[in-house]
Amino acid sequence: MNNVVEVKNLVAGYEARTLIRNLSFSIPAPAFVAIIGHNGAGKTTFFRTFQQRVAYQGQLLVQGHDLKTLPHATKQGILSYLPQRNTVSFSIKVLDLVVMGLFRKKRFFDHYTSQDYDTAANVLAQLQLTHLQDHDFTTLSGGEQQLVWLAQLMLQDATINLLDEPTQQLDVYYKNKVFKLLQSWVNDNYKTVLCITHDLHNLIPMEGYLINLSKPDPQLEVISRETVLANQAFLEAGRN
Ligand SMILES: Nc1ncnc2c1ncn2[C@@H]1O[C@H](COP(=O)(O)OP(=O)(O)OP(=O)(O)O)[C@@H](O)[C@H]1O
User: Fold this and answer.
1) Name one Pfam family in it (predicted).
2) What is the pTM for the complete model shown?
């Protein structure tokens, strides 16, 4: 059986600065993995390597395939990516934006069916957002918009989901709710979730791993109260 994700001797960064130095780890089975580290540590850059948006040395394998040989990993439902910030500059109904998460099941000119809209509405209901489904997306609060993007990503139904600070703008209730939801994607739907986060306290009840990109030799660590608090203390102690 292939590893879900395997990172081999990854080196990446920008012209003037290498941010990821010889990173290696593997995720053998569907799992939740928190990516933590100081601002500027290279967390988003790490995700950009998965999207082939930054040059890198080493290998990134998903389900045993080198990502460089899989240019359509998103279209194939292998990878999905939720960026830290996403904007829409035109009026669109929330439900119309969420249903677009089904894009990979559609051809270019296909319409979304009433069944597709029901699927989108069900996902919004899971996030307790039904009351917003007919609202103009551009009028929602930052946190509400973040939840709507998450709903759209859920519809993509990808095997490996890269989420860049998905709870950054959420209130304490929704932070808890979203982490529980991510845990259920892993446990009930066998998805793998790589989640960049600064919400370390929300990690304590999670099952899975964390990796701290601020450490000189980052490794996967099993999440427990002790490992989360030790990493929190490491990050609070200073920046290299
Ligand atoms: N295109 C680029 N060219 C040069 N430097 C860049 C580029 N994009 C990002 N950087 C720099 O690389 C560093 C790492 O950025 P990155 O976005 O990966 O950090 P991060 O760990 O995700 O931080 P945060 O927690 O603040 O989101 C930052 O110092 C940033 O300024």
Assistant:
1) ABC_tran
2) 0.94
Q: Are 159 and 192 within 8 A, CB to CB?
A: yes
Q: What angle do CA 99, 186, 146 make, to 5 degrees?
A: 40
> So where are the chain's domains?
1-78+158-240, 86-157
Asked if the model's pLDDT at residue 150 lies above 80, the reply is yes
Question: Could you report the predicted ipTM of this complex, rounded to two decimals?
Answer: 0.97
Instruction: Give dist(CA 116, CA 122) in Å, integer.
Output: 10
CATH number of 1-78+158-240: 3.40.50.300
Ligand 1: residue whose CA is nearest its atom 27: 39
Pick from 21, 35, 45 the residue to mutate for probing ligand 1's pocket: most ligand atoms within 8 Å of its CB: 45
Ligand 1 site, residue 41, Cβ cutoff 6 A: yes
Distance of CA 44 from the midpoint of ligand 1 (Å): 7
